Amino acid sequence: MIPGTPHKRTPLSPSLQFAILILLTISILIAGNFISMAVIAGLYGTDTFNNVISFNPNAPHIAQGLWILQIISTTIPLFITPIIFSMWIVREPQTYLKSNFKFNPFLMVIVLAIMYVSLPVMEEMIRLNQQMQLPDSLKNIENWMRNMENAAQKATAVMLRMNTIGDLITALLVIGLFTAIAEEFLFRGCMQTIFVRWTNNQHVAIWITATLFSAFHMEFFGFVPRLMLGVLFGYFAAWSGSIWPAVWAHFLNNGSAVLITYLYQHKQVNINPDADYTFSYSTYALSVIITVLLMLNYRNVALNKPYFKKY
After folding, report:
1. Which of 87, 115, 182, 281 has its CA 20 to 30 A from that of 25?
2. Cα-flanking dihedrals φ and ψ of residue 276, to 5°?
3. pLDDT at 54 over 90
4. Contact 176, 258 (CB under 8 A)
5. Hey, is 277 helix, strand or coil?
């Protein structure tokens, strides 16, 4: 090095970036978990702390405890991690977070249409995935997975006991908006960018990231539909060059579930969010065909391509 010249920082390899991102995520999640437990014990006492740990759904303050656990041990860490990683480790926040608004606003309308039109096929994926059965030799693993899923569903049900409009707004903000931003920054922002650089293939990167995104939730009987959602979110971010269409899609998915739950609890709709819905084969076919056409439309608009080539 020539004396007096500034030291040029050597870029980290994608594999090392991935390893650092995973270790950073785990570390901050663990720290968030300890902090949330301390807050719960400090606010509501050790009894509530023990009830949250053992998950006693009828205990006093259990809903408040679960909300604290969700926000401090999961939502905030998942938001902080990609910020730290992009700003202070790789030092490319715009590249890794994709937080720019330089995209055609019409993309948000197309995303809304895609999320609505894809509902029938997503519902069928959920139904089929929930019927998954492992071989007899793996029954213990299957029982463990079902017990984990049932516990998660019970916790969600407690958190989504919404008595007032204020409860609805809180759930929409935390489960809908804040979770969407945090998870998209981490997965479609940082992680997908790492895999694009690692594999030099945008499609491979999107599918790997979507697989890890679904696995992260540890809900094995919803793995396939969440994987496909991750793929949609991945293409929304990749083609637009911005994270916000993916955040919007993620919010629509989570927020609509919260809103329907609230309306059903207050007997304003007859749609049971926990029921299984089946459709005709023609409906599934139309859902797939129109979703694909809308995705192609999204790509054309995002990349400023004409709908038809001129010869």
Report:
1. 115
2. -90, 130
3. no
4. yes
5. coil
